[in-house]
Amino acid sequence: MRDRLVRVEPDLGSVGSGRAACHGVLHCTPPRASRILDRMKSMNLIEKLRVNPGTKVDLRDHDPDATPGFKGKPDVDAILLKTCSRMAELQYLMYAENKRALLIVLQAPDTGGKDGTIRHVMTGLNPAGVQVKSFKAPTEDELDHDYLWRIHNAVP
């Protein structure tokens, strides 16, 4: 199992308009993204996907290809457009504030889609403000510590 650590730092230059940065990649309109997000809220998607503490879950009861709440790529692209626009705005604000950063940890087996996730989710951000750290199989020293120990060591 390989992990990826993505640290979105304040960018090192102007990001311009987040929407403009995203439009060229996704070809979706913000009003469509807003309608889809409104539909997700009305569907109570969070409640449908929530697993309450103490609840036992048998993964065999769930379709791994399911995409609840999404009818296909256009829905996902529209939501990604709205999200990446907001992320670009927040990246610029973090740069201006110069106090905070966003840390994203992805875990999946080889060919689990981590690289594609990083590529798509980070769409519209200034790449100068993004660091990616890859972790291979844990070393003996890493195995002697808790799961997140090596990730904590990689955070600047």
UniProtKB/TrEMBL annotation:
It comes from the Bacteria. Transmembrane segments: none annotated. Residues 80-156 form the Polyphosphate kinase-2-related domain. Pfam families: PPK2. Gene3D superfamilies: P-loop containing nucleotide triphosphate hydrolases (3.40.50.300). InterPro entries: P-loop_NTPase, PPK2-related. This is Polyphosphate kinase-2-related domain-containing protein.
